[in-house]
Structure formats: C-alpha cells, structure tokens
Design brief:
By secondary structure, this protein is of the alpha/beta class. The protein is built from six helices and seven strands. The chain has a single domain, classed as Rossmann fold (3-Layer(aba) Sandwich), CATH 3.40.50.
C-alpha cells in the first residue's frame, strides 16, 4: 500500500501540472483591506505564482514571499522579473510545519492557506500572528463555503468568530478591523461560475 503524500510532494505535483503564468490579478481581499496601508515590510504565506506579492511590491512594499513548492517559487520569481519588482521580493521555501521565516512585519497575509494534506494550519497561523509588528496588520482569507466543483469540503466550515478564536490571540493586544464572511463570484477550472463565501480576518496589533 502506498503512503500518503507529504505537503511538499502534494504541492510540487500540483504546480508541475499547471501553467507557469497566472492571470496576474491580486486577491480581492488583499486589495480591499491593504490598498490604503502605508508600505512597509510584508510577509505572504503561500505565495503560489506570486500575484499578491508582485502587487504589494509594485505599491512599495518589501515582501518576503513563502511557499512550500519549489515550482511555485520559480513561477513567482519569473512573475516578479516580468513586472520589474524582483529586487523588492525575497522568496523563501518553507514547509511551515517545520521551518518559518524570521523577522517582524507590518503586514502578514495568508490567502487560502489550506491543504488536503494536514500541516498544522492553526499552529502555523498563530506563529504568523506572532510576526506582526506593533501597528501591523494580519490578514487571513479562508474558504467559508465550497464551490460545486471543489473537492475541498470540510464539514462544517468554521464561522468567522470560530476562526478568530482559533488564533488564541490576546484581545487586548489586537484591534478587530474586520471579522466576517464576504461573498464572491468564483470561476472554476472549466469556466463554471458560482457564488461562494470567504472567511476574512483583518486584525491590527496594538
């Protein structure tokens, strides 16, 4: 009987079978909640092909972009070069269950940092929160419902308040900017569309 894949194996295989060039669009929630922030140091966990990191770099941020998959980081580095922001982004490979980026950041963002292979997600997000500098922002966007074509179907999805509580943060040390579900029109791999919910946490460290 074959063993289950590790997170690294799963994501290396996934990125080996998709286009190296993305649509170039940053995440909707990233734009909505960070476009008015003053640029500083940003950390993106799970950067994929790099669209969010490139968007931040274009706006003056110095970005550390992290992913578990070597192929994703190669695609993201090419993305940065095409957009002439390679000097503003540092790419690091981490299996976040084992190693973690260092430093202190004015923005820490994780968009859909979810995987069919368990990697201790809540522990990872708590470690991410610890890297937010005073006055900095933590932005976490997760699936709040499943699209009809998706194979990612936890039951039930955590509510926004449950997701916030799982971070185990000191309420006196964090200001809530937004905790809730936001509806969005999603497009599937074969062009199908449907309304889904994102669970969004935006917290500012006091």
């Amino acid at each position: 009987m074959s063993s289950s894949p590790t997170s690294a194996q799963f994501w290396d295989d996934r990125y080996a079978n998709i286009s190296p060039v993305s649509n170039g669009k940053p995440g909707t929630m990233l734009v909505r909640f960070t476009e008015d922030l003053s640029p500083g140091r940003a950390l993106e966990l799970g950067c994929g092909r790099g669209d969010d990191s490139v968007w931040l770099a274009k706006r003056g941020w110095q970005v550390t972009a992290v992913d578990i998959a070597k192929q994703a980081l190669a695609y993201a580095a090419d993305n940065a070069r095409r957009n002439n922001v390679e000097e503003s982004i540092r790419f690091e490979q981490h299996d976040l269950s084992l190693t973690f980026p260092e430093g202190e950041y004015d923005l820490v963002t994780a968009s859909f940092l979810e995987s069919p292979v368990d990697f201790g997600r809540q522990r990872v997000l708590r470690k991410a929160a610890a890297l937010v500098a005073r006055g900095g922002v933590l932005l976490i966007t997760s699936h709040g419902s499943a699209a009809s074509w998706s194979d990612h179907r936890p039951s039930p999805f955590p509510t926004p308040d449950e997701a916030r509580a799982e971070l185990q943060l000191d309420d006196e040390a964090w200001q809530t900017i937004f905790v809730g579900n936001i509806e969005r029109l999603a497009t599937g791999p074969n062009g199908e569309t449907g309304e889904i919910l994102d669970t969004v946490l935006v917290l500012k460290r006091s």
